[in-house]
Amino acid sequence: MTILSFFTRASRAFNGYPSSSKLLLLCTLSLSGGGVVAYSEAQVDASKTSVQVNEKDCKKKRVVVLGTGWAGISFLKDLDVSAYDVQVVSPRNYFAFTPLLPSVTCGTVEARSIVEPVRNIIKKRNGEIQFWEAECMKIDAANKKLLCRYTVENNLVGNDEFSLEYDYLVIAVGAQVNTFNTPGVLENCHFLKEVEDAQKIRSTVIDCFEKAVLPGLSEEERRINLHFVIVGGGPTGVEFAAELHDFVQEDLVNLYPSVKDMVKITVIQSGDHILNMFDERISSFAEQKFQRDGIEVQTGSRVISVSDKEITMKLKAKGEICSVPHGLVVWSTGVETRPFVKDFMGQIGQANRRVLATDEWLRVKGCEDVYALGDCATINQRKVMEDIAAIFKAADKDNSGFLTVEEFKDVIDDILERYPQVEHYLKSKHLRDVTDLMKDSEGNDIDEVDIEGFKLALCQADSQVKNLPATAQVAAQQGAYLSKCFNRKSKWKDNPEGPRRFRGSGRHQFHPFQYKHLGQFAPLGGEQAAAELPGDWVSVGRSTQWLWYSVYASKQVSWRTRVLVVSDWTRRFIFGRDSSRI
């Protein structure tokens, strides 16, 4: 009997036995004969397994995530994908470490060093996440459907459009550059929002220098070509100006010595100071640093138009209008909502808003089972004065019409969690506890307070409601928070963990999102940086730059990008930046 015929009969004989029994038999044969045996499970069993898996997947709720930025990737990394059918839609098949985009514009860091393919990230989740490289064109909120389109231009066959149904939708698409409808901006300005933007800027900077050294140009023409204008004095604009100055002074002046004294960098800011969202000490340090470096800062100037040759602006102090020739303009003035999100807002009654509104649990207002994170949304914090009567009634257990200190203490934790502006108000007034608000008109402690006194104590708290900044830090924390909520949906459905419902009974299912500010950096060039750290700490100088290196290296999404970024920094220290235009 041949070996082949033996295994054929053995397969038929053991067809009714479980796989473990068959494996045991084959292992025994292999050990006794010293050979290697390859075994293939019966096709019938494989199909049964496939059917069982498909039936199991069908029972899962489908979660569709739009976007692969900070919010989307943070959500996917922590989500329990075994509990959901997870699908991701994004026009970019990578995650980009956007805080390093200014470094990419000058070759300090290479573009591929700060991006991680999305499929690499989801591969670590055992392949239980499906990714579609496409752009969402429309959200059908009524039918819970998405219309998507493959937007890469090529001659490949097949339909570019498809639709997806969802049970839960997570919108994390970020935002687009806000031009404020300024004429000529889209046609004549560079932006710094995506990796492709940084690569275009890098090529254009080299083009400006190559054009400036050509024979036959006048000195005025050379100066115009080497005038770099940055519109916007926020973190991105300031960091790019600092990176460009270092690139010019450390590398390009050695390669283009004939025009080294003709380079000019100008930062145009509509406000009174650059980095006005930072501490005043940092803003002042940055302005002084730029003045020493020869970077011109024009504050109180509003750009009214941009042409291919000139940028026109209005000086607020004098009311004058002036035009300045340029070689390159980088527009970095803020963000606005993407078109398909605006269309979605119109469907759910938010057409009059500028940004998609969510509640404190990141749920989109006016649309069930839809969540929004990051730059595309803002949290509409509920005002404490809207619920002041309900809070008083819940705290007044004996219905006496007066609230004692002890009764107030029973609801303090729920008030602080549900209305975080109350805690901010206490800090602004340097008060240690909410009970410190229970004082009479002369500032003396009182044992109890009526409804009018209670309103008076908290009436100023809502003035501390502030929108969260559109930063990577906020988006990442929101993504991590929402994934925890999804992971505990079934667990906390019957045992809610959130604060008390002052309007109604019971408690909220989850704790509301609370942002924890971990500090922010502003690299200023010349191996110097400024940092605003928790606890009202401010740090500036070279030591802060090294802190910036360590934090940004540690925050990379993978060890691959971490090694690449650190190696790029090392290469720049040894060999300088690459000026090739490729």
From TrEMBL:
Cofactor: FAD
One GO MF term attached to the UniProt entry: calcium ion binding
Keywords: Calcium, FAD, Flavoprotein, Membrane, Metal-binding, Mitochondrion, Mitochondrion inner membrane, NAD, NADP, Oxidoreductase, Peroxisome, Signal, Transit peptide
Membrane topology recorded in Swiss-Prot or TrEMBL: Peripheral membrane protein
Reaction catalysed by this enzyme: a quinone + NADH + H(+) = a quinol + NAD(+); a ubiquinone + NADH + H(+) = a ubiquinol + NAD(+)
EC number(s) per entry: 1.6.5.9
InterPro entries from the UniProt entry: EF-hand-dom_pair, EF_Hand_1_Ca_BS, EF_hand_dom, FAD/NAD-bd_sf, FAD/NAD-binding_dom, NDH-2, NDH2-like_C
Family: Belongs to the NADH dehydrogenase family.
Protein name: NADH:ubiquinone reductase (non-electrogenic)
Species of origin: Gossypium darwinii (Darwin's cotton)
